[in-house]
Amino acid sequence: MAAITEEQVELVRALIAAIPPGRVRTYGDIADEAGLPSPRLTSWVLRTDGGDLPWHRVITASGRPAAPVRRRQLELLAAEGVPIVDDRVVLRRCRIGVDGDGP
DNA sequence: AGCATGACTGCTT
DNA sequence: TAAGCAGCCATGC
User: Domain segments of chain A: what residues?
Assistant: First the structure.
């Protein structure tokens, strides 16, 4: 029996599904919102149940997509209008839940 | 029971 | 900016 409940997993999926086009969120943000004890659990949910979810809208805090799918994600994100520079997503412009205070 | 793995993050060099 | 290191939690062997 996993330490996390089905409710938590469901919440994670809901949060990911709620991400609007042209916007992205990090694993850590989703984990925090869903109440997961660690951002690694977000990857776990995505990897196991992410079949019907817009997984491409979930990226690492580095602004770089996950390794096994990074090529795919960059293409999908770019198609949605997400600003990408040098194979990297511009989080300060498309990240949700955080307001870029500006440089 | 113990060790290795992974779609991670933050801090330090 | 990039690279290295430790912490993190569930899963698989």
Answer: 6-94
Residues with CB under 7 A from strand B: A 26-28, 38-40, 42-44, 46-47, 50, 55, 58, 60-62, 66-69
Are β-strands A25-26 and A84-85 bridged in parallel, bridged antiparallel, or unpaired? unpaired
What is the arithmetic mean of pLDDT over A23-44?
A: 94
On strand B, nucleotides with any atom < 7 Å from a protein CB are: 6-10
- Record the tokens describing residue A89, joined without a space: 């997503």
Joined together, the tokens standing for residue A26 give 């990090």
**What's the CA A18/C1' B3 distance, rounded, in angstroms?**
38
Q: Can you tell me which residue has its alpha carbon closest to the C1' of nucleotide B8?
A: A40
What does the pLDDT look like over A51-100, one tens digit per residue?
789 999 999 999 999 988 899 999 999 999 999 998 899 998 888 877 65
CATH of domain A6-94: 1.10.10.10
pTM: 0.90
